[in-house]
Amino acid sequence: MKKEELHITLYQQDIAWEDPDANYMMVEKAFEGVGESDILVVPETFSTGFGDHMARQAEKPGGRTFDFAVEIARKHEALFAGTWTVCENGVVYNRLHLVRPDGSCDTYDKGHTFRMSSEASQIARGSRRIISSWRGWSIFPAVCYDLRFPLWLRNSPNLDYDLLLVCANWPGSRYEAWSTLLKARAIENLAYVVGCNRQGCDSTGINYAGCSAIVDYKGKALAELPPQNRAADDDSKPLDGNSQLLSATLSAAKLSTFREHWPFNLDFDNT
Q1: Of 101, 103, 96, residue with least CA distance to 131
Q2: DSSP H or E run through 158
Q3: Exposed e or buried b for every residue in 195-222, given b needs 16+ CB within 10 A?
């Protein structure tokens, strides 16, 4: 049975560069004060950051970051969503994990590795899309660059998913595209869209504006964070982690009513 109201909390993290222990502590502390929530979401590669050494830092399936994710999921009785690199059968993937409190997990390997960085040369592309179920909701996971490819994220005419969940490291220089694409994917797929991005500046000097958002099926932001404009040379203390939490409640009834009244899916193209 689908839960009528699904409560989601995002953590727009300023990731500690290649320091898993610091990032585990950061995430744990950020979610400490969160009340009841059904899904907890962190950015892409939340435990290490997105960089040239992702393949070297890859873990085996069920490694220490997975154990941490299970711990958080159990503590909060929530689905934990985040990515980290995994090496399986000698191949490295940027893998999004949807971890349940009982330790079960659905995984999605990033389908579009970013060719304008070293990711495409060190990380294998995933070849399959998945739809995961949690508390009766159908969730379609995606990672960062995937957001630019509408056919990859296309909902079926039968509307197979209710929520598109995107974990990202999307640079601040292109934050307008990020915000626009989140809304576009929601409108065209008649689905809620959640986009959890990182903020701050990484060790290579790339700035991240954040702009995490929870968007409804009409393209309206139910909750969003404004751009974070910390400069690369700003050595001030990181923003308080708790100030970068973002929450919203999704309504199954409102989604169903909208889909019934506006069945645009019946005219979806076949391509």
Answers
A1: 96
A2: none
A3: bbbbbbbbeeebbbbbbbbbbbbeeebb
Phi, psi torsion values for 44, nearest 5 degrees: -60, 140
H or E, element range at 114: none
Distance of CA 228 to the CA centre of its chain: 18
Query: Per-residue pLDDT tens for 64-80?
Result: 999 999 999 999 999 99
Residues annotated catalytic, as ranges: 44, 110, 144
Amino acid found at 270? N
Q: What are phi and psi of 82, to 5 degrees?
A: -170, 165
Q: Please give the sequence-ordered ranges of beta strands (E in DSSP) within the chain, or none if there are none.
A: 5-11, 39-41, 79-88, 91-99, 105-109, 132-134, 137-143, 163-168, 192-197, 199-201, 207-209, 213-215, 221-224, 245-251
Under the banding of pLDDT at 50, 70 and 90, the label for residue 138 is very high
Q: What is the DSSP letter of 9?
A: E
Placement of tokens 């598109």 in the chain: 164
Q: Are 223 and 247 in contact (CB under 8 A)?
A: yes
The answer to whether the CB of 44 falls within 8 A of the CB of 81 is: no
Query: What is the CATH topology of the domain spanning 5-264?
Result: Nitrilase/N-carbamoyl-D-aminoacid amidohydrolase (3.60.110)
C-alpha distances (whole Å) from 262 to each of 78, 122, 135, 208, 257 are 32, 43, 25, 36, 8
Tokens describing residue 265: 């899916």
Predicted confidence (pLDDT) per residue in 18-54, tens digit: 999 999 999 999 999 899 999 999 999 999 999 888 9
pTM: 0.94
